[in-house]
Amino acid sequence: MEHYNMNLTLKVWRQKNGKDNGGFETYQVKDISSEMSFLEMFDVLNETLIHEGKDPIAFDHDCREGICGMCSMYINGKAHGPWAQNTTCQLHMRAFKDGDTIVVEPWRSVAFPVIKDLVVDRTSFDRIIQAGGYISVNTGNAQDANCLPVEKEKADAAFAAAACIGCGACVAACPNSSAMLFVSAKISHLALLPQGAPERKERALNMVAQMDKESFGNCSNTYACEAECPKGISVTNIARMNREYLAAELKSND
User: Fold this and answer.
1) 115 belongs to a structural domain
2) Does the residue 146 lie in any domain?
């Protein structure tokens, strides 16, 4: 693959804190390698800002391997940028051309308030997970691997749902800032497995209740969440979550 350098114009959202109105600021970056990751390009920009005595741009990052879900950026109107099923940290600058203007924003959601610049508070996701509670397990000796048979179709579906990294791209992409894809993935991967059966009904009721409490919007049915999800989580999980919730509601009213 041909390597080349480029000069770019960045329009980046800057916001001192949650009370500040914020706004876009324009930066020029030069001689950016096409093989840099998007976050490495931001590192170069921040080094320049620090050298100039200016406040560097705050952004979330951790593993930089597409695993942790921290690198939440809205790039040119798309969560995580132009590449499909890709995180920002795995987005490389060859996705852009010399002379391009790139607009970078934080996630936009009442449930994800801005902390500073591109960093948002996503602890609402943590509280939804906590609402799901625990899983009853046998804490004795380790069981044989095949002592709990699981149908392959269900095992595959549970594994696919468990791939969710909780980045929040689904919320950012949804016109209603819905967290349905995230919550449905977390409910689905346990509902499909026998280990998740004992608390199955309570889990669905409690996690959905917490999602509503956090002020996420309703599902828009546009499938934007699936389209922007870096792990390709399917919207079929939302249908499964609705079934789980309805069944739990009916059971609780018996």
Assistant:
1) no
2) no
Do the strands 101-105 and 5-14 form a parallel or antiparallel pair, or are they unpaired?
Answer: parallel
Tell me, what amino acid is at 40? Answer: E
Considering the domain architecture, whether residues 98 and 126 belong to the same structural domain is answered as: no
Q: Scan for tokens 């991967």, then name that residue.
A: 189
Q: How many CB atoms lie within 10 A of CB 186?
A: 23
Same-domain check for residues 79 and 49: yes
**For position 134, what pLDDT does the model report?**
85
Do 64 and 128 fall into the same domain? no
Q: What letter does residue 52 receive in the DSSP assignment?
A: T
The reported pTM is 0.93
Question: In the chain, how many domains are there?
Answer: 2
Look at residue 141 and tell me if it is in a domain.
Answer: no
Domain contains 178: yes
11 and 101 co-located in one domain: yes
Of 100-109, 122-131, 138-147, 174-183, the one with minimum mean pLDDT is: 138-147
pLDDT tens-digit map of 86-119: 999 999 999 999 999 999 999 999 999 999 999 9
Residue pair 61/70 in contact (Cβ under 8 Å)? The answer is yes
Beta 74-75 vs 101-105: how paired, if at all? antiparallel
Using CA atoms, how far apart are residues 246 and 211, in angstroms rounded to an integer? 16
Domain range holding 68? Answer: 5-105
Given a cut of 90, whether residue 254 has pLDDT beyond it is no
| Kind plus residue range of the DSSP H or E element containing 26 | strand 23-33
Task: Compute CA distances 150 → 25, 155, 194, 195, 237, whole Å.
Answer: 53, 6, 8, 10, 18
By three-state DSSP, how is residue 206 classified? helix
